[in-house]
Design goal:
- The chain is mainly α.
- The protein has 10 helices and 4 strands; from the N terminus they run αααββααααβαβαα.
- It has one domain.
Length: 237
């Protein structure tokens, strides 16, 4: 009976979380974790990560080869992009992504102060001139994220969680920084499936905090299904 009540509460919390949308009043989030999942949740989540990441890597191997060829034909540069990120409890790790920008992307921002200022506001440019031709498609369809399945297998990331961040972005979480580092970053999460994911970084912090406080396997499965739906719509598969 206790197990059934716990499952029911988890389902109700997950459903309510997804129905609230992407806008939260700042008064509804707190700097401390309000819900700590059971040890069984972490075991289930890790098994889910390993099984789905393994299946994904095997099934998507031909796609990896095609994407790599397209990137090479685009500008002859490197296929993969490596960047140092913050993981669980602030441990650093190297994230893997398909390269979507020109080789000197950072230097380009330095040469264009107005773009650098816009980037520093939300850590993203809505119309980024640094993105390559193949990069536009990869980003639109989220295919550039696929190499992160290796990070999931290595235990550095999870399939679902807050979006990964470099060290210098942690300050943008303010009083919620420690809470953000309490969970593994995910390939997908609430911010990635939000319709307003390009509006403001201030929108992203509440989404991450709400996810952390409402974590459950059911919620992860809901987010994965919503991610799949977004992928199908964008790629036309």
């Amino acid at each position: 009976m206790k197990s059934m009540n716990t499952t029911r509460r988890s389902e109700e919390a997950s459903t309510a979380y997804m129905e609230r949308g992407s806008t939260f009043a700042s008064s509804t989030i707190v700097a401390d974790i309000t819900h700590s999942p059971s040890r069984f949740y972490y075991i289930e989540k890790r098994i889910l990560d390993i099984v789905l990441a393994t299946i994904g890597l095997i099934a998507l191997l031909p796609v990896f080869l095609v994407i790599g060829l397209c990137i090479k034909l685009d500008d002859g540069g490197k296929v993969l992009y490596f960047r140092e990120m913050l993981g669980l409890r602030g441990r650093g790790y190297t994230i893997l992504k398909f390269r979507t920008m020109i080789p000197d992307a950072d230097a380009y921002l330095e040469r264009h102060p107005e773009l650098k200022l816009e980037y520093q506001k939300n850590m993203k440019l809505q119309k980024d001139p640094r993105i390559t031709r193949s990069g536009y498609f990869l980003r639109k369809t989220y295919l550039d994220e696929l190499p992160q399945l290796f990070n999931v297998l290595a235990g550095q990331m999870s399939l679902v969680g807050p979006r990964s961040i470099p060290a210098h972005e942690l300050a943008l979480y303010g009083e919620y920084a420690r809470k953000r580092l309490a969970v593994k970053p995910g390939i997908t999460g609430p911010w990635q499936i939000s319709e307003n994911r390009y509006t403001s970084y201030d929108e992203r912090v509440p989404l991450d905090m709400q996810y952390i406080d409402n974590r459950s396997i059911l919620l992860d499965l809901i987010i994965l299904l919503k991610t799949l739906r977004v992928f199908i719509v964008r790629t036309g598969v």
